[in-house]
Amino acid sequence: MTEAERRRAVAQLLVIRASGHAEDRQRQYPHWEHSNGELQRLLQSGVGGVILLGGTATELQQRCRTLRSWSDSGELLLCADVEEGIGQRFPGATWLAPPMALGRLHQTNPEHALRLAERYGRTTGDQAQRCGLNWVLAPVCDVNSNPDNPVINVRAWGDQPESVADLVRAFQRGLNAAGVLGCAKHFPGHGDTDQDSHLELPLIKHGRSRLDRVELVPFRRLIDSGIASVMTAHLLIPALDDSQPATLSRAVLTDLLRTELGFTGLVVTDALVMEAISNRAGPGEAAVQAFAAGADLILMPADADAAIDALCTALADGRISESRLHDSLKRRTEALQGCEKPSATAIATTPEIELETATDRRLCMELIDSSLEVQGPQLPTQPAQNGVTLIRVDGVLPCRFLCADAAAISTPERHGYKALICHDRGIEPWSTDKDPTGGLDLERLGPGPVFLQLFLRGNPFRAGQQRHEPWAEAIEQLLRVQRLCGLAVYGCPYHWDSLRKLIPDSIAAGYSPGQMPEAQQQLLNRMWGFSSEAHQRQDFTD
User: Which of the residues 198, 206, 415, 495 is marked catalytic?
Assistant: First the structure.
């Protein structure tokens, strides 16, 4: 193999980040998303994979066509983190309730949960195909056994290993039926940590017997079922390797995943720009260590050229064998052969195809309706005097789920509750700004009843900023002054399970795992006693 051939071969194993928008000025994260000029250069030099974020589903269609037209590496791997359906990342497609919703349903109605999980996978896969993607970076196989987990949380399919294993297997059946590749993540299990690997390297102290009983159960199930790819976790697990994170560990990726568990598909790193890795090694060295450990695909190196240079040098120096390169290229080829080519509609010259079907919408609503939990009486229909709905948001700005006319704002407003939206970069409700220990500032809230709405689910890069806010104490404070008229929690089930116990039978309370506008509306419909049809006539006819 000549030097030029080696360089093109290595480039095929990189997966770089791109915006789903067409224009450079539309990039949301330009420090991670390559410009169009850089994208075209890298794809023409042989880079074989792209992970996309940003833009509508229709824009994504066109973007995938464009990227394929720029590529000289044969068939591209085109993927996205769409653990909650394509609409989670790309408006215009279907945004589904988070997987944890089905984990809770599985406790009471496992057969129904499994049927929904398979439909979940099929809908995600079908819409991926229509948009031009051939690889879905899901399902999350982490068993979320730590309620304080700031980064997995509702992304997981539950907190019981056998339940998670059954649900991810059902989801994978749906993906298989749609003809797209799946990805089990984050190996060997990111569910029991209270640290965010986007920001630091989490430490997992469990012994091997515990890992076998809990963390590895869903991965074994999907490996036995023929999952196409497995994504590594940026975790330090001394029971497996006391010096290297799993992503850079031969003991984890080769000895455990390949040899012991018998996985023969593609191993892809989690993003190497994450600080758990980038704080330890530069982009070139991180790529070399991951590949030497047993990874096939290098996801989001901080510097693509540096990663290619370093891998080529390691191959030339014998640090990595040529046979390892050939093995990874073969696995990549075999994976692509196992997925369907983009459908004729997805590669047509006009983008106006039906991205979301009526069946997809029905699944969206069925998942929401199946996962709502409501207790207590209905909220009063008479307009409140000087009422306020206090809305806490722990998501990054801007929040797609909380636009100006979102149900969490508009529905209470019709009943006399003025919205006060709290965010750690904006208004704080505490008596001392940025310091929740002093309790709520009741004067700031005004004299009327308070309807508390909490959007809390755990978000990457935020290190669980809202995790320790004293919402239990705030609820008790509002109860003491007889100001609390209702509670709605969107997202984290652990917050809901702890807070619901504080709410007396005389006060309305409700929970939705989903935070999207449809979930808000369905929950508030239930809490106010409206039918969905009546609300739609009232709000959505214009």
Answer: 198
